[in-house]
Structures are given as structure tokens and as C-alpha cells.
Amino acid sequence: MNDLTHLNDKGQPVMVDVSGKKVSLRTATARSIVAMPAEVRTHFVNGDIQSKKGPVFQTAIIAGIMAAKKTGDLIPLCHPLGLDNCTIDIHINELQEIVIDCTATITAKTGVEMEALTGASVAALTIYDMCKALSHDIVIKETKLMEKTGGKRDFKR
């Protein structure tokens, strides 16, 4: 009757009990895409956007990793996890959009999809924050899970 894992049989919110699960290597990669207007793209120098606040992509990478580590503090029913690894890659695609990929890894009883999604999202928000003085026509188009391994079933977009 109840397919939502964060609701008990009375419909009340709960943290998922993972005490009976087996520990396994789990990874997740999430992607955020940011569309930038031309006036922002003119500030690309040596693979990064240079702003008065500093190098945008480098700052976004640090912010995304920090956010992934804090996911359990930000998402109410998320388990607090000590990540084994978290990486963020930022590049420009053929449509001149900024593509942010966050990959989180842990050996644990629960997955790291939310950590990867949070890392990619906060990196995108950081890019917006650091570039908004150049234009408010910046659009964070999407954030989505690209892949996960470990746990009950793997997923690949």
C-alpha cells in the first residue's frame, strides 16, 4: 500500500531503517546544467570564468563538495554519511552550457544519490551567485541523477 520509503504505515515521515542492509560500495553521479548568456561567456579565461569574487568554477567545485558532505544536515530524512570520495567536474558542452557532474562514493548500507544531487545543485547555485553581477539571465536548467551503483539495483541514464 505504501510505496514511499520515507512514510510509515500511518503516513508519518520516518528515516528509512537501514540497519538490516548489507554494506556495499555505492556510487552516484548527478548532473546540473547551467545556461549562461553571452555577456557572461565573454568572461571565460583559461577554462574558468573570472569574476571579482575569484575563479568561478574552482569555487563551485569546493562549494559542491562541501554541500555533498552536509547533505544529511540539509535534507531532513537523509542519513548523515561520511563520504569516501566526492568529485566535481565542470565543462562547457556544445550548446555553450555549463555542465556540472558530481560523483559521490561510499562503502555503506545506504546510497549516495542525494549527496551527488546536492553537490551538483550547490555547485550550480554557486556559479549563479558568482556571476549574477554580470547577468540575471542565468538559468539552472536541470539537475538529475545520471547513474548509481550498489544497493538493490543499479541505474544509468
Descriptors:
157 residues, alpha+beta, Alpha-Beta Plaits, 5-stranded antiparallel sheet, 3-stranded antiparallel sheet, 4 helices, 26% helix, 34% strand, elongated
Q: Work out the number of β strands.
A: 8
Structural class: alpha+beta
Helix content: 25-40%
Number of domains: 1
By CATH, the topology is: Alpha-Beta Plaits
Question: Over all CA atoms, what is the radius of gyration?
Answer: 17 Å
In whole angstroms, the N-to-C terminal distance is: 28 Å
Strand content: 25-35%
Going by CATH, the homologous superfamily would be Molybdopterin cofactor biosynthesis C (MoaC) domain
Rounded mean pLDDT score:
92
CA-based shape:
elongated
In spatial order, strands of the major sheet run: 5-6-1-7-8
Order of helices and strands: EHEEEHHEEHEE
CATH class: Alpha Beta
Tell me the number of helical segments per DSSP (H or I, 4 or more residues long). 4
Let me know the largest β-sheet: 5 strands, antiparallel
What CATH architecture label applies?
Answer: 2-Layer Sandwich
Low-confidence stretches: none
Structure explained in plain terms:
The protein starts with 23 loop residues before the first strand and ends with a strand. The radius of gyration is 17 Å and the shape is elongated. A hairpin with a 2-residue loop joins strand 2 and strand 3. A five-stranded antiparallel β-sheet has the order 5-6-1-7-8, with helices on one face. 26% of the residues lie in helices and 34% in strands. It has one domain: Alpha-Beta Plaits, CATH 3.30.70. By secondary structure, the protein is an alpha+beta fold.
